[in-house]
């Protein structure tokens, strides 16, 4: 069997590993039992999760050089060990500091080593279908919430909240390690026929290392672009229940049902936009995402009823698109060769969005009693994103010249 066929097997293994890496999406299941056990308040419990997100999004930038030194497979196996051990040790935590070290740092570090590298790996396997590959990876990673939330809830009822961490830590470490052991990197000369037909489009794309990439203006423009895009989705994902209760006077129970639907739209968007971006191009797809988010945010600020619910689902759907499109865009602009490392640097846009989105919503809620100002701020972000996307996609030749000068 040639590599073109084998890569589908490797992708399936990577996708299953990504599902096991998505424990962070189940935090809401753990939060209340932990508050009850340790006597924390909601703000303290949220700090643990926020810190974990920050660590996981900063990890690829901090350890990019380590991945180059170890190679992708050893790097991933190291990440799997740290991830599993972090969960197991968290099961023995007795206080906040212990929890911050074991979960926020340990699990965050492991997640940051695993998911961004698996995303880059999927794009490297399918340079001819990078949008679809990235969409599958992002979608399966997000599916972790669907699988592990009820699993964690079941285990909690039978074994106690701290034992859930131990059980899942052992299971994930074993499963991910076995799956990663079978992964293979594409041969150096691997170029699918469909990509060869597009050689005129791709032949001028330089393969930059992360050291070269961060010296280009386009890297920072992309980091800002995707941070703007992720902010809207992370605002909604963090405050969806409260927004629905305030915006259309839903009960907490009914809002919870719609929050689940937002998550479903988010996951569906990851698959959909990955496919679309391969068909119509990244530039057009990003424009559609920003336009849809901008209009949806305006609708949330003035509408009610069905239009309000449709708008919030649309934002979740588009957040799935931003989560998917970063990796293939990285490969398109900075080359396929080092995408497993390079993507990790732009992955930090999730960390920026995770700080901006929820904080903008929380701040506007605290000073005005509602989310109207926050919606309008993010709609302005969408306009800024459209302008920035135009600048980025319109500076290809200039960027290429600057890269060649730096390489020389």
How would you explain this protein's 3D organization?
The protein folds into two domains: 179 residues, MFS general substrate transporter like domains (Growth Hormone, Chain: A, Up-down Bundle), CATH 1.20.1250.20; 204 residues, MFS general substrate transporter like domains (Growth Hormone, Chain: A), CATH 1.20.1250. α1 runs parallel beside α7. 85% of the residues lie in helices and 0% in strands. The two termini are 41 Å apart. It has 408 residues and is mainly α.
Summarize the structure.
The chain has 408 residues and is mainly alpha-helical. 85% of the residues lie in helices and 0% in strands.
Helix fraction bin:
over 70%
Tell me which CATH architecture of the largest domain applies here: Up-down Bundle
**Which segments are poorly predicted (pLDDT under 50) over 5 or more consecutive residues?**
397-408
Report, as a whole number of angstroms, the end-to-end distance. Answer: 41 Å
Mean pLDDT: 88
Q: Per CATH, what is the topology of the largest domain? A: Growth Hormone, Chain: A
Secondary-structure element sequence?
A: HHHHHHHHHHHHHHHHHHH
Percent of sequence in beta strands: under 5%
The value of Rg in angstroms is: 21 Å
| Number of E strands | 0
Name of the CATH class of the largest domain: Mainly Alpha
For the sheet with most strands, the description reads: none
Shape: globular
Number of domains: 2
Q: Looking at this structure, what is the CATH superfamily of the largest domain?
A: MFS general substrate transporter like domains
